[in-house]
Amino acid sequence: MASSTSFKDRNLIAVIGDEDSITGLLLAGIGHVNEQQKKNFLVVDSKTPVATIEATFLEYTERKDIAILLINQHIAEKIRPTVDKYQQAFPTLLEIPSKDHPYDPSKDSILKRVQKLFGE
């Protein structure tokens, strides 16, 4: 029974992305700040340290209220070893394109795992 309750409280989408991606998703209504003043999004620009991106990624993957974690693919590339190590079902990790960086399936860790499962 404990495993069935593990996903019940997960009702947020978290995002690590560039300003345009975050702005669009916030306008769509995904923004949330909890009682500890923790946000479910991180705006990454050229000045954002890789350590901050990685720490936020680890925080979001450990939070029990996040169901889906979206990350711009070009930002995921900055922390690729950490992203590739992530194997949990919840929160589900999805790499998304951004306005300036198109999606590249050859870099998507989830797609690579699926292809490996099917022997492609």
TrEMBL record:
Keyword S-adenosyl-L-methionine attributed: no
Query: Where in the cell is the protein located?
Result: Vacuole membrane
> Mind listing the UniProt keywords for this protein, alphabetically?
Hydrogen ion transport, Ion transport, Membrane, Transport, Vacuole
Named from the GO MF annotations, one term is: proton-transporting ATPase activity, rotational mechanism
| One Pfam family in the UniProt entry | ATP-synt_F
What's the domain of life for this entry?
Eukaryota
> Entry's InterPro entries?
ATPase_V1-cplx_f_g_su, ATPase_V1-cplx_fsu_euk, ATPase_V1_fsu_sf
Gene Ontology CC terms, in alphabetical order: fungal-type vacuole membrane; proton-transporting V-type ATPase, V1 domain
What kind of membrane protein is this, topologically?
Peripheral membrane protein
| PANTHER family reported in the protein's UniProt record | V-TYPE PROTON ATPASE SUBUNIT F (PTHR13861:SF2), VACUOLAR ATP SYNTHASE SUBUNIT F (PTHR13861)
Into which family does the record put it?
A: Belongs to the V-ATPase F subunit family.
What the protein does? Subunit of the V1 complex of vacuolar(H+)-ATPase (V-ATPase), a multisubunit enzyme composed of a peripheral complex (V1) that hydrolyzes ATP and a membrane integral complex (V0) that translocates protons. V-ATPase is responsible for acidifying and maintaining the pH of intracellular compartments.
User: What is known about its subunit structure?
Assistant: V-ATPase is a heteromultimeric enzyme made up of two complexes: the ATP-hydrolytic V1 complex and the proton translocation V0 complex. V-ATPase is a heteromultimeric enzyme composed of a peripheral catalytic V1 complex (components A to H) attached to an integral membrane V0 proton pore complex (components: a, c, c', c'', d, e, f and VOA1).
Task: Identify this protein by name.
Answer: V-type proton ATPase subunit F
Q: Which organism is it from?
A: Coprinellus micaceus (Glistening ink-cap mushroom)
Write the lineage as a comma-separated list. Answer: Eukaryota, Fungi, Dikarya, Basidiomycota, Agaricomycotina
